[in-house]
Amino acid sequence: MDSSAPAIIRARTEQQAMDWSLVLVSQGIACALDRDPESGGWQLALPATEQSRALEALRLYHQETRRSRWEHALPDSELTFHAGVLIWVAVLSLIHALGDRVGDGTFAYVAAGRGEWWRAFTALWLHEDLAHLAANAMTGTIFLGLAMARYRAGVASLVMLLAGAGANFLALVVRRDHPGYGLGSSGMVMAAVGMLAVQALPLWRHGRRGTRVILGGLAGGTFLFIEFGTSLTSDVLAHAAGFGGGLVLGGLAALLPMRWLPAVNRGAWVAFAALVATTWGRVLFP
After folding, report:
1. In this predicted model, what pLDDT tens digit does every residue of 206-238 receive, in sequence order?
2. Which CATH number fits domain 7-64: 3.40.1110.10, 3.90.550.50, 3.30.70.1530, 3.30.70.660?
3. CA distances, 5 to each of 17, 24, 33, 53, 171 (Å)
4. Counting beta carbons within 10 angstroms of the beta carbon of residue 18, is it exposed (0 to 12), middle (13 to 18) or buried (19 or more)?
5. Which helix (H) or strand (E) holds 56?
6. Which among 121, 148, 215, 264 could bridge 153 via Cys, Cβ 3.0 to 4.6 Å?
7. Contact 195, 159 (CB under 8 A)
8. How far is CA 109 from CA 72, 237, 281, in A?
9. Alpha-carbon distance 231 to 240, whole Å?
């Protein structure tokens, strides 16, 4: 056997090959991504002396990113869905059913302008009527479920909460003296769309091939934003701000090293729970 010949690691799909190459590069293992000339599939070529270390790095990667019981592969696709989003839908439904008994958590612009900042967070859980709730729950189940599977549930939940609240704060800057109010989870839903649009950002290391994938994701995300976030009856400003927040925060989250994800996800859950408890505490116990 020629020891100078490169070692070959075959992947099922181009996306998997790109993911694996990022793992190897992060470990200082040089590799080239290309098509297998015989099967037409995708493969990684690397120095034969690095094969054992590369296989061990990929084993650890799969161990750290293995699916939880909440995650399910969608049939006939490479997409994974996180069923934990159904808990979010159940909480939205319960809060809506309780109505005024949960207190006034709407994002009233005048009150928020006086310093009641927590309304930017609590308003994300409230809806005007059943039709408003149903629309956000249906679209949110799809986009939030996909984002939670891609970024880990805690990271995605925290990003969507921060982006949605940030969208409300931006609306306050524009409408500070407006006598009305805002409410609804659409800012969070649009943040999830933004996160999905930039999920391929780490592929910038792969030159033109990676750039095409990134630009395709951004184009697809922009189309979804236009389709679901710009109707004449919707709050386009809040939707655009939520989408933008998802792009920025999602992009930062996508660039996190894989080995950091378990710890970052746990920290994100703590921050998410603290924000929800603190903000709703101001409403329930004024």
Report:
1. 677 778 888 999 999 999 999 999 987 788 999
2. 3.30.70.1530
3. 20, 18, 16, 17, 60
4. buried
5. helix 51-64
6. 148
7. yes
8. 41, 14, 20
9. 12
Q: Kindly state the greatest CA–CA separation across the chain.
A: 79
Reported as a single tens digit per residue, the pLDDT across 152-187 is 999 999 999 999 999 999 999 988 777 888 899 999
User: The whole model's pTM is what?
Assistant: 0.80
The H or E element containing residue 207 is: helix 207-229
Collapse the DSSP code of 182 into the 3-class scheme (helix H, G, I; strand E, B; otherwise coil) and give the result: strand
Q: How many residues would you count in the chain?
A: 286
Domain boundaries, the chain: 7-64, 71-284
Tokens of 169: 């704060």
Give every CB contact of residue 149 below 8 A, 6+ residues apart in sequence.
71, 79, 80, 81, 82
Please report which confidence band the pLDDT of residue 36 belongs to, taking 50, 70 and 90 as the band edges: confident
Residue-by-residue DSSP string for 13-48: SHHHHHHHHHHHHHTT---EEEE-TTT--EEEEE-G
CB 46 within 8 A of CB 10: no
Band (pLDDT 50/70/90 cuts) for residue 76 is: low
